[in-house]
Amino acid sequence: MNTQGLKLSQLRALVAIASCGNFSEAALQLNLSQSTISHAIATLEEELGVILLKRGRYGASLTPVGERIVTPARQVQHLLDNIVIEANREKGLLGGKVRIACFRSIATHILPTVISEFRQHFPEITVTLTEMDDTINMEQAVREGRADIGFTYLPASDEFETWEILRDQYIALLPPNYPIQTSKLTWEQLASYPLIMTGITCCAQLISAYLKTSKYPMSIAYEVREDSTIVSMVKQGLGVGILPRLAAEPLPAQIQVCELPSPLERVIGVAVLSNALHSPAIYAFLDALRHQGQFMEKAAV
Q1: Which of 197, 209, 241, 247 could form a disulfide with 234 if both were Cys (CB 3.0 to 4.6 A apart)?
Q2: Counted domains in the chain
Q3: Residue 186 backbone zone (phi > 0: left; psi -120 to 50: alpha; other: beta)
């Protein structure tokens, strides 16, 4: 047997399945696809020449030899974790603070997952969130040193170093009683409805510039700041709202969702001050954000 063929990823998969009792939950725990987990176990069993798991209709359980092998596999994983801890101690990652300025949709839908995974690796680093309603305020917080990391719309000014995290499409929200037979509105249809607009500067400027590309005059009936208020007003039949999909979630079942006449999106990025001296904790969190961004891109594909 060539022990060099054994991989840590295979042992992690075995330990995860032993803990979870099935392949699907183990895949979620390791942030991998179920097929990747299945392949890891199959190749591990092939390398060892023994069957480690009994696959059944209701999950997977360890065989007797699997029970004996999973114990040293856990020990290997524990030793590896200790190696990472020692490396982090040397890099100054066993403490510190990361201050984040973000808007609600990022704080609601993106950051909880990132922070949860980050704290599993760096439990002694404190992460604080400050929610702001405008990218202007977020950029100013980073500029003045009140936040280490900010979320903004791209492109941003040259004083910031930025990375794209996601692209969020704008959608039209229609009341339940509005008759609509298509999934995509025309400019003429959009102009026929009273519009409920956001008053937040960064969003309002983007939507206003978009609406000006139409040859039809738009009827703006209301201007409000909170995304949830726009959703509630649409639900009550007061007009049509235009919001980024992420900001609109979760949507009541009664509200109809349509595509806009032409695509409109906001490109969301993470920003730090260029040429600033950042702590190892901040760099580690930026790596976690990049990883989450790559995961979302793969999921979208």
Answers
A1: 241
A2: 3
A3: beta
Q: Are residues 290 and 147 in the same domain?
A: yes
CA 218, chain centre distance (Å): 34
Q: Is the entire prediction scored with pTM above 0.90?
A: no
Do 176 and 150 share a structural domain? no
Helix (H, G, I), strand (E, B) or coil at 99: strand
Domain region containing 281: 97-166+267-300
What are the distances in angstroms from CA 139 to CA 57, 59, 244? Answer: 52, 49, 20
Q: What string of DSSP letters covers 229-282?
A: HHHHHHHTTS-EEEEEHHHHPSPPTTSEEEE-SS--EEEEEEEEETT----HHH
CA dihedral (91, 97, 101, 107) positive or negative:
positive
Residue 20's CB is within 10 A of a number of other CB atoms, namely 17
In single-letter form, the type of residue at position 118 comes to F
8 A C-beta contact, residue 191 and residue 261: no
Amino acid at 242: I
Would you write out the chain's pLDDT as a tens digit for each of its 301 residues? 666 778 889 999 999 999 999 999 999 988 889 999 999 999 999 999 999 999 887 789 999 999 999 999 999 988 988 887 777 766 666 778 899 999 888 999 999 999 998 988 888 889 999 999 888 899 999 999 999 999 999 999 889 999 999 999 999 999 998 888 889 999 999 999 999 998 887 888 899 999 999 999 999 999 998 899 999 999 999 999 999 999 999 888 889 999 999 999 999 999 999 988 888 889 889 999 887 765 454 444 3
